[in-house]
Amino acid sequence: MLTIVKAVSMFILACVFNAPASAQNTWPARPVTLIVPYPAGGATDVVGRMVAKHLGEQLGVSVVVENRAGASGNIAGRAAARAKADGYTLFLATTAQSINMAIFSEPGYDLAQDFQAVATINEGPMLLLASKQLPFSTIEGMLSHVASQKQELRYASAGNGTSSHMTAEIFSHLADVKMQHIPYIGAAPALNALLGGQVDIAFDALMTTLPHVREGKLNALGVTTLERSRIASEIPTISEQNIPPLKGFNEMLWNAVLVPKGTDTAVVGKLSQALKEALAAEALQKRFHEMGNEVTWRDPAGSQSFVSNDVKQWRERVKALNLTVN
Questions:
Q1: CA angle 304, 310, 313 (to 5 degrees)
Q2: Greatest CA separation found in the chain?
């Protein structure tokens, strides 16, 4: 009897110690899904499709992008958090998901607790953009226009609680200018509204809006980061313009790949390494740089710390500025 018990115990221990290696060796055995929380055509979707292509080449299986728009990215966040923790469902998180943790009382998931961060992907600036139908092309001109017309500017966003929404609210608070929020379901519809003159201004990713600026379809009033973009050095930063309340204005967009909490650590490690190699691809780096983005790979521990800190910082900012999703 003791021999049988000993044999069973040894078998159980072997299964436990060999599980990570087994998971690492067998994953992935089928296509992987990358959930993108916004519609096709926006900045997050563009990043997601580029990463999916190169990641698939590293893994040897297809990485399929699934756009799940709505509720400021919370529909996608909930779906990803509740997915099976087997490494076959990835979530492309953005700055907006950190904001959602602070803005929504019940987003349906916790970005820092319900996921394991695999790797950060990139960081990039936004532009403050204005419709060509308006008679100004600088922030100073915009503020003078608002003062003389005594009416609120309408600004588009990719949805309540998104980066474009919160950045506009922070700008409004600092510049002491009232603006009317017009939310859309994603960055692409918001940009189309600005191009069509349905709204006056918007904050949006440099990577997707710079072509419209250079084609003369939109006016770029300023870059949201402290330093000018190396691919659009002709556009001044918001911070450097002669408007004291906006000195130090600095808002950055980021993307990271997450998996549901409980995913095998061996799979997380393999996926993180595959992402590192995908991001090192010359074609991807060149494309990112052309769009004003910087590749910022971090390992799982560093990425988890980054996401958790971003969530904490946005909660503090939202509380301090009394920002809402209205």
A1: 140
A2: 93
| Cα 114 from chain centre | 17
pLDDT, tens digit, 9 for 90 and up, residues 34-71: 999 988 988 889 899 999 999 999 999 999 999 999 88
Residue 210 CB-density burial (10 A; 0-12 exposed, 13-18 middle, 19+ buried): buried
Rounded Cα–Cα distance for residues 323 and 326 (Å) = 9
47 within some domain: yes
DSSP string, 9-76: HHHHHHHHHHHHHHHHHH--SS-EEEEESS-TTSHHHHHHHHHHHHHHHHHTS-EEEEE---GGGHHH
Point out the domain boundary residue: 212, 246, 280: 246
Pair (272, 232) in one structural domain:
no
Is residue 224 a contact partner of residue 127, using CB atoms and an 8 Å limit? yes
Bridge partner list, 65? 34
Residue 67 and residue 216 in one domain: no
- Would you call the peptide bond into 28 cis, given omega within 30 degrees of 0 as the criterion? yes
Gap between the Cα atoms of 71 and 135, Å rounded: 34
| Distance separating alpha carbons of residues 171 and 177, to the nearest angstrom | 8
Q: Note the pLDDT tens digit of each residue in 79-104.
A: 999 999 999 999 999 998 999 999 89
Q: b/e string for 65-81 if b means 16 or more Cβ within 10 A?
A: bbbbbebbbbebbbbbb
Q: Is residue 166 part of a domain?
A: yes
Question: pTM for the whole thing?
Answer: 0.80
Identify the domain containing residue 264 by its residue range. Answer: 32-123+253-321
- 37 within domain boundaries: yes
Task: Check whether residue 83 and residue 227 sit in a common domain.
Answer: no
Mean pLDDT of the chain: 90
* Helix count and strand count (H, E) for the chain: 11, 10
Burial of 255 (0-12, 13-18, 19+ CB in 10 A): buried
